[in-house]
Write a structure and sequence with these properties.
The complex is a heterodimer of chains A (about 110) and B (about 625).
Chain A lengths: L1 E2 L4 E4 L11 E7 L4 E7 L5 E7 L50 E2 L4
Antiparallel strand pairs in A: 1-2, 2-3, 3-4, 4-5
Chain B lengths: L5 E11 L3 H13 L5 E4 L14 E4 L12 H11 L6 H21 L20 E5 L2 H12 L2 E3 L2 E8 L7 E8 L5 E11 L29 H8 L4 E2 L8 E3 L7 H5 L4 E3 L6 H4 L1 H8 L10 H13 L6 E3 L7 H12 L3 H9 L11 E3 L13 E2 L25 E3 L11 H21 L10 H21 L15 H15 L8 E2 L1 H17 L8 H26 L10 E2 L7 H4 L1 E7 L6 E7 L1 E2 L4 H5 L2
Parallel strand pairs in B: 1-2, 1-8, 2-5, 8-15, 16-17
Antiparallel strand pairs in B: 3-4, 6-7, 7-8, 9-14, 9-18, 10-13, 11-12, 18-19
Helix pairs in contact in B: 1-4, 1-12, 2-3, 3-12, 5-16, 13-16, 14-15, 14-16, 15-16
Classes of the chains: A mainly beta (about 110), B alpha/beta (about 625).
The complex binds flavin-adenine dinucleotide.
């Protein structure tokens, strides 16, 4: 592994199964929201790829729950989690199963 | 040792491990416990820790209830079919009904989700999986945990749980050390959530040189999730259900996107579909389970293993067709770059361009985990509305120790959670932990100074073993009185490999081998009193090894208890080669007595909470 001052990182494969002469280089840029890769084969073939790493300014859309509305009284005894049931985007409440239908043992 | 500083921190909820489940727990704990003190302790650095450190290319568990793509009962049918009938359906259903709200949050937080251009929905890789550009999945969820916790400690490895000195079987916190400073950390807490990931490197890996770090499951997953609860007498379930994965050779690159999205397929060296060849033989072992759809993961492994043994290898993934499409070629490469870069490295080094060469596949060494196509882990209570009496004792995801909760790989019985389901299970455990505290179940906990001072002696002993033992060395590095952590690890891996169904025996074991394995593990356990650590990093290695060893003992006891071969392709009991529904259509549960260190085993009924109807139609 080799890291350069511009935060690009070069790796070679493990000696027990990777013949030498190849490299995979990566550069991750949080401000741009991308990660770029350059793959060099032992025989010289080269491939390049770029992927997004986020769709939003870094961390800005992650809530600070301590500052949000408090859960309603009594909600702690329900099965709902934060944002639910609204956050499930379904009509009605969380699904459940009646215990009368439970079967013990081999048959299902 | 006198120099080591002790820090004592009091909190309400302590989360051990800041991976997918731990970040989910830390986040949700803040929502329900606004004024509680929430502390998360992580062995590495939560920005890049756990199995998702390198990122992921898919979220493997998403229902899509909003579009009626799947409902929770479909997931129950899927997971139980894949695990040959043996899951905790209450836990699976519970995770599945909540997982969509987790995924919708990830989308909002900025995780790049691929969309189906025609429908605008999340792009499906398969029935359960949706595709993401997830190189930064972990830093994104870590951010959510950082915003929620009072404090996150990085670089602290938890070695032991603390128990209440007043009330029996009640949790009191945990202790560990900082592997950079060496400081001793005592965390007193009212509730503890263990979210410390699975276990790799308990069986000998295929690569034993420099590449020993290239296992499929994260090499730093060291079984703390199991060892911590086992050591205080918590019950465990299905620990025999280790997993073997069919993966690309050497780099262990995952195959999900290849099978499901790229529609690549496997063949033997002669270009034949070998799975068909083994149908009758498999049927003679497991009966009608081979006719289930989709074919259970272990049975597909079984055909692979049989074919290689019969001389039909190597097995290849046929990529040459799919990779002619430039878009699919990009997907094929990026799948590894943002998740398992080691596979791209292997292909580059061996001149494997899947457009022109069909890459080789292999089956991995076994791993122990609770979140994948396997469900080893702690025996926990389910939710009140879904759990039969045997599965419910007050608080969702609470272990059989009061106030001790689990999530993710820690929890047994709930397979196919993956990253999103593990995060979700962390949320469930956190809400239940808050309720446990609100219900005043944690009042009056006392943890004496003696308890944690005694543990301090135990934790730092490997440093002392080294300092004293090295005085006996007159030349070289070998001491007659201590072994190093790596030497102990290699011994453990050989025992597990040769006696408990690793690659050396093609995953075969039997009662005699298991008994011998247990004897050798016992001696290893004794010898680990003499493990020597030359610095704090090696001290971490020593404790990782001790945790792996307890986990391995539990796996071996369970494997011995279940007298059938439930999952051919994961392991074989040569003395009971057939699946035996008459005697073993049940869950196995163990408990290790903390005083005697002896395991006791029991069978617990499996409850099927949804019927089979739709499953048959859906093939
Ligand atoms: C190669 C690979 C590919 C995968 N692909 C997918 C995929 O495509 N889609 C998907 O959804 N899932 C995928 N998974 C599965 C997913 O990563 C896991 O299901 C999930 O990470 C489990 O969550 P967890 O919190 O239980 O464990 P982890 O996320 O592993 O977290 C455990 C945490 O505990 C910490 N820890 C351990 N011991 C201690 C200790 N003693 N003290 C303090 N901290 C400790 C660890 O450092 C780690 O941060 C993949 C996994 C791997 C390895």
């Amino acid at each position: 592994m080799k890291a350069c001052p511009n935060h690009a990182i070069d790796v070679r494969g493990y000696a027990d199964f990777a013949p030498m002469g190849h490299s995979v280089r990566v550069r991750r840029e949080e401000e741009k929201g991308t990660i770029s890769w350059r793959i060099k084969f032992r025989n010289g073939t080269e491939k390049n790829f770029v992927s997004p790493i986020t769709t939003k300014p870094w961390g800005k859309f992650i809530p600070k729950l301590a500052e949000e509305d408090k859960p309603n009284q009594g909600e702690i005894t329900t099965q709902r989690l934060y944002t639910e049931p609204k956050g499930l985007n379904i009509d009605g409440d969380l699904p459940t199963v009646s215990k009368d239908s439970f079967k013990k043992g081999v048959y299902y | 040792m006198a120099k080591v500083k002790t820090h004592v921190e009091e909190s309400d909820i302590l989360i051990i491990g800041g991976g997918m489940a731990g970040t989910g727990a830390t986040f949700e704990a803040r929502h329900w416990g606004r004024d509680l003190k929430i502390v998360c302790v992580e062995k590495a650095n939560i920005d890049r820790s756990g199995a998702v450190a390198q990122g992921l290319y898919a979220i493997n568990c998403y229902m899509g209830m909003q579009w009626n793509e799947n409902q929770p009962e479909d997931h129950v049918r899927y997971a139980r079919n894949d695990l040959m009938g043996m899951v905790r359906e209450d836990l699976g259903y519970d995770m599945a009904r909540h997982v969509d709200s987790t995924v919708h949050m990830f989308d909002e937080w900025g995780l790049p989700m691929m969309k189906n251009e025609k429908t605008g929905r999340y792009l499906r890789e398969g029935k359960w999986q949706i595709m993401i550009h997830g190189e930064s999945y972990k830093p994104i969820v870590a951010e959510a945990a950082k915003k929620s916790a009072n404090k996150i400690y990085n670089r602290i490895m938890i070695t032991h749980l603390l128990m209440d000195d007043e009330k029996e079987n009640r949790i009191g916190g945990a202790v560990g050390f900082n592997m950079r400073t060496g400081d001793y950390h005592v965390f007193k807490a009212k509730a503890v959530i263990v979210a410390a990931g699975g276990a790799s490197h308990i069986f000998k890996p295929r690569a034993v040189g420099e590449g020993m770090g290239r296992t499929w499951y994260a090499p730093w997953s060291n079984g703390s999730a199991y060892a911590l609860p086992i050591a205080v007498g918590a019950k465990m379930t299905q620990m025999e259900n280790r997993i073997v994965l069919c993966r690309f050779k050497d780099g262990y690159g995952p195959v999900g996107a290849y099978f499901l999205h790229l529609k690549t397929y496997t063949q033997n060296a002669n270009g034949e579909n070998y799975e068909k060849k083994w149908y009758d033989q498999t049927k003679s072992l497991v009966g009608e389970y081979i006719d289930h759809h989709p074919t259970p993961t272990c049975l597909r492994n079984h055909a692979f293993i049989q074919e290689v043994q019969a001389g039909g290898g190597p097995i290849h993934m046929v990529t040459k067709e799919a990779f002619q499409d430039p878009h699919l070629e990009t997907v094929g490469w990026e799948n590894f770059l943002g998740m398992t870069v080691g596979q791209a490295v292997v292909w580059a080094s061996q001149n494997i361009d899947p457009k022109y060469t069909n890459p080789e596949l292999t089956t991995s060494e076994p791993y122990v985990m609770g979140s994948h196509a396997t469900c080893s882990g702690a025996w926990v209570s389910g939710p009140e509305d879904l759990s039969p009496p045997e599965y419910f004792w007050g608080y969702n995801r609470m272990l059989t120790v009061d106030g001790l909760f689990g999530a993710g790989d820690t929890v047994g019985g709930s397979a196919h959670k993956f990253s999103s389901g593990s995060f979700t299970e962390g949320r469930l455990a956190a809400k239940a932990a808050v309720k446990y505290i609100e219900d005043k179940k944690a009042d009056g906990i006392k943890v004496s100074d003696k308890q944690y001072k005694d543990l301090k002696e135990v934790i730092y002993k490997p440093l002392e073993n080294y300092t004293v033992g090295r005085n006996e060395i007159t030349g070289g590095t070998v001491s007659p009185s201590y072994i190093s952590p790596i030497q102990g690890l290699q011994r453990l891996q050989r025992i597990m490999d040769e006696y408990v169904g690793g690659i050396a025996t093609n995953y075969m074991t039997n009662e005699n081998m298991l008994n011998r394995g247990l004897e050798l593990l016992k001696w290893l356990e004794e010898d680990l009193e003499n493990v020597g650590a030359e610095d704090y990093h090696q001290l971490m290695r020593a404790w990782e090894l001790k945790h792996r060893t307890i986990t391995s003992q539990c796996v071996t006891e369970h494997t011995k208890f279940r007298e059938e071969t439930r999952w051919p392709g994961y392991y074989y009991r040569g003395d009971h080669l057939k699946l035996d529904d008459d005697n073993w259509h049940c869950l196995t549960v163990s408990r290790r007595d903390p005083k005697t260190k002896k395991f006791t085993m029991e069978k617990v009924p499996v409850y099927h909470i949804v019927d089979e109807k739709k499953e048959k139609k859906a093939s």
